[in-house]
Amino acid sequence: MNYLTYLPVWEKLDPSQQDTLLRAAVSRKFKKNEILHNGSADCTGLILVVSGQIRAFTVSDDGREITLYRLFERDICLFSASCIINSIQFDITVTAEKDTEALVISPEAYKSIMEISPPLANYTNEVMASRFTEVMWLIDQVMWKSFDKRLAGFLLNEASIEGTNILHITHETIGNHLGSPREVVTRMLKYFVSEGLVKLSRGLIEITDEGGLSSLEKTKR
User: Fold this and answer.
1) Over the chain, what HEC string results?
2) What is the per-residue pLDDT across 49-99, written as a single tens digit (0 to 9) for each?
3) Extents of the domains making up the chain
């Protein structure tokens, strides 16, 4: 199957442009927690997710992680090929959150088509704008939203992604997503337990009051 048809503008490319991208795309399989891309100096290429789930995050000087965005089937990661964007570098790491199959498209080939194809250039700009919006939303959350609301929102989003209220996730992993120390996550989860919102066991969090978490996330204070 030609997974490049996942690109919304595929049919707007002429046959020679399609052929160039086809020859420049390599199918790769990544195990859970495997690194796909590591830092701005690593111009891996554009990553088109065929199946699975990937996470893009940045690391502070003191080693603390925070998730910038997550990508799922048919999503494309551009920051892993930031070398195609003049004067912009993104020092991010991309890892597989689950076993993942992806197409990795050569940045040189993609850029050569983008420079002559308005549809592909417009699509690339739209994806980049969407990623910037996600990053700006994250900054707003970190700066202005209290941690209890951020954690409640994360747990609800995780339950939506996994399709279950029983989450197999560690406090450290949550901390890495939210950019907070594990101890802070643990302390807040214990508070959630006291409020009857969740139950905890080793490596597992069960949401027991979804409505309560939702109300907490939306409260203004």
Assistant:
1) CCHHHHCCCHHHCCHHHHHHHHHHEEEEEECCCCEEEECCCCCCCEEEEEECCEEEEEECCCCCEEEEEEECCCCEECHHHHHHCCCCCCCCEEEECCCEEEEEECHHHHHHHHCCCHHHHHHHHHHHHHHHHHHHHHHHHHHHCCHHHHHHHHHHHHHHHHCCCEECCCHHHHHHHHCCCHHHHHHHHHHHHHCCCEEEECCEEEECCHHHHHHHHHCCC
2) 999 999 999 988 888 899 999 999 999 998 888 777 765 666 789 999 999
3) 3-143, 146-218
Domain 3-143, CATH 2.60.120.10 — does that match? yes
Strands 54-59 and 65-71, bridge-based pairing: antiparallel
Judge whether 3-143 and 146-218 match in fold: no
User: Hey, what's the torsion of the CAs at 25, 26, 29, 32, to 10 degrees?
Assistant: -60
CATH class of the domain comprising 146-218: mainly alpha
**The model's pTM:** 0.84
